[in-house]
Design brief:
Ribonucleotide Reductase, subunit A, binds fe (ii) ion, mainly alpha, 75% helix
Length: 283
C-alpha cells in the first residue's frame, strides 16, 4: 500500500528534521536574570510550576506509551525516544530551575504512576485492531497537549515581555516555545494518516473513549484540575475558554466529528476546560 509508506516516509523525514534543527536545550544556555523576582513570582510562579511539572512528567508519559502501545510503528518510537523525550525533559528542567531561582520549591512530578485505565488499554491493545484505536487516542492527546502548549507559551512569552523581563522571555520561554510546533506537527500528520485507515468500529470506539476520557494536559486529579484553571486565569485563557478550546482541538473536531456539521468545539472538551476554571474560582 504505497499511500501508507509515503505517509511513513514523510513522518520519518519530519522527525529527522526535528532532531537536526532542534537539539535539546541546555540549562546553561538560559539567562535567569530577573529584575523583579517577587513580582514575577507573584504573577507567574504557579504557571511555571504547572508547566515544569507537566514537562518533567514526560518520563511517565513514555512509560504510559510503552504500556498502551506494546508494538508501535518504528517512527513512533523514533519520535518519542530520540526527539520528544530529550526535548521535553529539558523544558522541564529549565522551567523548574527558573522557579527555584524565584525562591519557589521545585516541581513534584509523578514520573512513575501508570493509571489502571491505561493498563487496561495496553492489555486490550493485543486484540487485533485495538492497538490502532489506542494509537489514535495517543495522537489526539498529543495534538491537544502540544497545541495547548504552543498557545500557553505564546501567552506566557508576551506576558513576560510586558513585565520587562527580557532575559527570561528571550532565553527561557522563547527557545522552549519554538520546539513545541514540531511536536504538534508530528501528531497531526500521524492522526490524519491513521484516521483515514480506521474502520467504522474503530472510529466509533475512538469517539466514545475520547468523550469519556478527555482531560486538559497534566490535570489528573481535582487539585491539578484547579491548578490548570488557575493557569488559564493568569494567562487570560479563562476569559475566552471556547476560543482556546476550539484552537486546541480544531483538527480533532474536523476528523472525529466531521459528520456533526456546525459543532464548534466537542462538548467534552468545553466541559473539561470550564470545569477547571470553576474549580480554580471556587478555591
Ligand atoms: Fe515542552
Ligand atoms: Fe511538546
Amino acid at each position: 500500500m504505497p499511500a501508507i509508506s509515503s505517509d511513513e516516509r514523510r513522518l520519518v523525514e519530519h522527525v529527522d528534521r526535528l532532531a537536526e534543527e532542534h537539539p535539546p536545550l541546555r540549562v546553561e544556555s538560559a539567562d535567569f536574570t530577573v529584575h523583579d523576582p517577587a513580582g514575577f513570582e507573584r504573577r507567574y510562579g504557579h504557571v511555571l510550576d504547572y508547566m515544569a511539572r507537566v514537562e518533567l512528567e514526560v518520563d511517565r508519559n513514555v512509560l504510559e506509551l510503552t504500556t498502551m502501545l506494546p508494538d508501535p510503528p518504528a517512527v513512533d518510537r523514533y519520535f518519542y525516544a530520540d526527539v520528544w523525550q530529550p526535548q521535553e525533559i529539558q523544558h522541564g528542567r529549565i522551567l523548574d530551575r527558573l522557579q527555584v531561582e524565584l525562591g519557589r520549591s521545585p516541581a513534584t512530578p509523578d514520573t512513575e504512576t501508570v493509571s489502571a485505565k491505561l493498563r487496561v488499554l495496553g492489555a486490550l491493545a493485543h486484540v487485533n485492531g485495538f492497538q490502532d484505536v489506542c494509537r489514535m487516542l495517543y495522537y489526539l492527546t498529543g495534538m491537544a497537549t502540544e497545541r495547548s502548549a504552543v498557545l500557553a507559551y505564546n501567552l506566557l512569552h508576551r506576558g513576560t515581555e510586558d513585565l520587562g523581563e527580557q532575559a527570561i522571555a528571550a532565553t527561557v520561554i522563547a527557545p522552549i516555545k519554538r520546539q513545541e510546533p514540531g511536536h504538534y506537527a508530528f501528531y497531526q500528520l500521524s492522526a490524519r494518516g491513521l484516521w483515514a485507515q480506521l474502520a467504522g468500529w474503530q472510529r466509533w470506539l475512538v469517539r466514545r473513549m475520547r468523550t469519556i476520557s478527555f482531560a486538559p494536559v497534566g490535570a489528573n486529579d481535582d487539585t491539578q484540575r484547579a491548578d490548570f484553571g488557575a493557569v488559564m486565569m493568569t494567562l487570560g485563557i479563562a476569559d475566552d475558554v471556547d476560543d482556546f478550546a476550539g484552537q486546541a482541538v480544531r483538527v480533532e473536531r474536523d476528523l472525529l466529528w466531521a459528520h456533526r456539521a456546525g459543532m464548534a468545539v466537542p462538548p467534552y472538551v468545553l466541559r473539561a476546560f470550564r470545569d477547571a476554571v470553576e474549580r480554580a474560582q471556587a478555591r
